[in-house]
Design brief:
The complex is a heterodimer of chains A (117) and B (157). Chain A has a single domain, classed as Winged helix-like DNA-binding domain superfamily/Winged helix DNA-binding domain (Arc Repressor Mutant, subunit A). With 117 residues, chain A is α+β, with helices and mostly antiparallel strands. Chain A contains four helices and three strands; from the N terminus they run H-E-H-H-E-E-H. The longest helix of chain B has 32 residues. In chain B, helix 1 packs antiparallel against helix 5, helix 2 packs parallel to helix 4 and helix 4 packs antiparallel against helix 5. Classes of the chains: A alpha+beta (117), B mainly alpha (157).
Chain lengths: 117, 157
């Protein structure tokens, strides 16, 4: 696997969707993916359509009773792209935070401000 | 839409989202009793050929086991919103438990058959009961492993 950026996965929402689908599940249902990413139905629909058109995500639609159910999974091509992109991001993160100038930029746990007096 | 280059915590956010997804991978209340029924059916198969009524063979029981396994997998995916390959060795953290499940099943079947042939039915039933408990514990450990791999991304094929 080569670490290389993928402009299609680069935006955070699509990175989250693809990163979750690449975690190991065969299929992930619409509501589970929406809740895990923390986005609205319409944003997930729009972004998943982009990923589907690019051939990165496969969509399966079905219904349980009258309730429609939509399931997503990564295609082999999408999986390769996500793994390459995540490897590239990990390298980037390491390079950025190893640099002494950027050490201060590393996210730290939030602390309550101390009150004067 | 946000851009990763402007948000150095993107990978950290993805880790949080993965643990949120993994948290959903908790079996509903009926899942483990269902697993117990499945293994109880499977371990009843060696008894059927010897003690069952005439014409009762092992294969209908095995078909029932497969049907229950399919139903459980389908129900788990429906309840959690995550379809995983429960019976596979794909998840590194769940692999030891899955191997233990297969080994316990094989050992229990062989022991049961030997005991039944020697006429030690009570001992065979005790072995089957113990094996059911061990299989349920194994399945719990396997699901824990799957959850761990979903969280860390280690389950990607």
């Amino acid at each position: 696997m080569t670490a290389k950026p993928d402009p299609l996965i680069h935006p955070i929402t699509r990175l989250s969707i693809c990163g979750l689908l690449a975690a190991g599940a065969d299929w992930v249902e619409f509501a589970a993916l929406r809740d895990a990413v923390g986005i609205s139905d319409s944003v997930l629909s729009k972004q998943s359509r982009v990923l589907e058109d690019a051939g990165y995500v496969e969509v399966r639609k079905g219904a349980v009773g009258r309730r429609p159910r939509t399931w997503f999974r990564l295609t082999p091509e999408g999986r390769r792209a996500v793994q390459g992109h995540l490897a590239w991001l990990a390298q980037l993160e390491e390079a950025v935070f190893v640099s002494p100038d950027m050490q201060q930029a590393r996210p730290r746990p939030r602390m309550q401000p101390r009150r004067a007096g | 839409m946000g851009d990763v280059a402007r948000d150095p915590a993107a990978l950290e956010r993805l880790r949080v989202q993965r643990s949120r997804l993994a948290d959903r991978m908790r079996p509903p209340w009926w899942y483990l009793p269902g697993i117990a029924i499945l293994w109880a059916l499977a371990f009843a198969a060696p008894f059927s050929s010897r003690y069952g009524p005439r014409g009762v063979h092992t294969w209908p029981i095995l078909l029932a086991v497969l049907a229950v396994a399919g139903l459980l997998q389908w129900g788990l995916a429906r309840a959690t919103g995550i379809a995983v390959a429960v019976g596979s060795l794909r998840y590194p953290s769940g692999r030891p438990a899955e191997i233990a499940i297969v080994v316990v099943a094989a050992a229990a079947f062989v022991t049961e058959i030997l005991l039944i042939h020697r006429g030690l039915v009570v001992a065979a039933i005790a072995v089957a009961a113990l094996a059911v408990v061990a299989e349920v514990a194994g399945q719990q450990a396997h699901l824990r492993g799957i959850r761990h791999d979903l969280q860390s991304g280690g389950g990607s094929a």
